[in-house]
Amino acid sequence: MSRVVNEHPSVRDTTRERVKAVIAETGFQLNLAARSLAASQSYLIGTFVADTASLYYSELARGAARACRALGYHLVTEEFDQRNPVAADHYERTLRQTRCDGMILPPPLCDDLALLDALERDGVRYVRISPMLDPDRSVAVFAHDADGVSQLARHLWEKGHRRFGVINGPSNFASSATRRDALIAAVCALGGSASDVTASKMLWDGTFPATGYRTAGQLLKDAPDISAIFTFNDELALGVLGYAHENGLRVPKDLAVAGFDDSDASSFAWPSLTTVSQPIVDMAVRAVQALVRDSPH
Fold first, then answer.
1. Distance CA 93, CA 47 (A)
2. Which of the listed residues 24, 167, 215, 253 has the most CB atoms within 10 Å of its CB?
3. Per-residue b or e along 12-36, where b marks 16 or more CB atoms closer than 10 Å to that residue's CB
4. What's the confidence (pLDDT) of residue 133?
5. CATH for 145-278, among 2.40.160.210, 3.10.150.10, 3.40.50.2300, 1.20.1070.10?
């Protein structure tokens, strides 16, 4: 039964289905405390989430929790300061004490070399989400950001847009530069030039929507001929939409607004937000599965 519960690949499909049927019929539940003592494992997987409201981290945690539950593990989350993401000391004081069997490291903590060193010293396996530094150092999960942005650029180009604005994400996120560069490359491939794209760093204002609002104002002041703005995530795009509405810009007639993630934030928008889909939940599920699959136990 333990091999079925733990999704061990050596179990035949017919056996797996019979055991699952018995589990469902009897209402069997794992005693995690006894299981942990018997196997010298905690059956805990840890991750960090930002201390600011972020649908990205919420989606990651939701996917990881779902996968952990399916595989007989529990997810432990710990907040980190997104403005000062030095997590090694924080790990020493918190998650290290829980004896997690593995860790999922989202950006930017996936590139915190001191944290990676600490985990390796303790023998804790980890999976990184979209790392920027030394991607071959560990198992990592990536999304195809550039492909999605290229398709978005073509869509906007076909709508007649020729001057684009980009609101970048945090500089320590590899995907921030990837998405910006992909838009520039796509515009050039469509017949435009790099000078047709004006990129701006975030002017942080406490939350992503407030930051999108503030940055859009400065971006359109610097380049008033921009007719389409692409943002690092959907939450920034909500702020751009708010700025447009309050300043008499009709969306999408006067200004097209596009985000990234296809998160719940896009469903809050009016008019509907154009966005690039990112499989955040699936990425978290794959990270958990990789940790459990590669477990030495």
1. 14
2. 167
3. eeeeeeebeeeeeeeeeeeeeeebb
4. 86
5. 3.40.50.2300
